[in-house]
Amino acid sequence: MYRHNIDGCRSVPKIGYVYTMFAYVFIMVMPILSACAFQNPISNQELASTNSNLHEQIATIIATTVHEGQGVTREGQRFYTFVPPSPDALETVKRNADDAIPILNEFIWGKDPNAGHVAMRLLGALGGEKILAQLTPVIDKHPSPGMRSLALRWVSTAPWERALPILKRAAAKDSSRSVRDTAKELIARHAQQE
């Protein structure tokens, strides 16, 4: 059944070798093919887990970014300076844009203004029309004039024909003079660029 080669080692006959290789390939490839062929679509539980994981990722990104901007002076005075999110953080949000938008919105409307500013920066990085639906209520109803002004700045990066009516409304009707001035400044800056 076995042949001995020149070195005295046993070798499998040629036909047996072909069958052996076929068996190895079959054993190695079949589990992979069956896993791919019979894979179930994502269940609701897995989808919820994925969204939960994304929520945790975004919460970590925001907390880390806020932490990087915090400090204490020699006199013991706490301070916060804005630190932009890392490129990796921006990429994570862009890659998961549709799922990330409602999560970022939670932080924008949350109690921590620093986290809200970071969330606004992440949302603004998405740009385009995606941000208008989220930022228009912020401009109209957010209690913080600073957040309303920041939202106006990001809205001005959206397609101008959609952004202009929002900016004009804020310039005419916002309760805060600083927000009205920001809207007017953004409108004037765009007019100069044309």
Helix content: over 70%
What is the radius of gyration computed over CA atoms, rounded to a whole number of angstroms?
29 Å
Number of domains: 2
**Helix/strand class:** mainly alpha
What percentage of the residues does DSSP assign to strands (E)?
Answer: 5-15%
Quote the average pLDDT.
Answer: 81
Stated plainly, the CATH topology of the largest domain is called: Leucine-rich Repeat Variant
- pLDDT below 50 for ≥5 consecutive residues: which ranges? 21-26, 28-49
**Spatial strand order of the main sheet:** 1-2
Instruction: Tell me the number of helical segments per DSSP (H or I, 4 or more residues long).
Output: 9
The 3D shape can be described as globular
Q: Regarding CATH, which class of the largest domain?
A: Mainly Alpha
The description of the largest β-sheet is: 2 strands, antiparallel
Number of strands: 4
In the CATH classification, which architecture of the largest domain applies? Alpha Horseshoe
Keywords summarizing the entry:
194 residues; 9 helices; Leucine-rich Repeat Variant; 4 strands; single chain; two-stranded antiparallel ribbon; mainly alpha; 71% helix
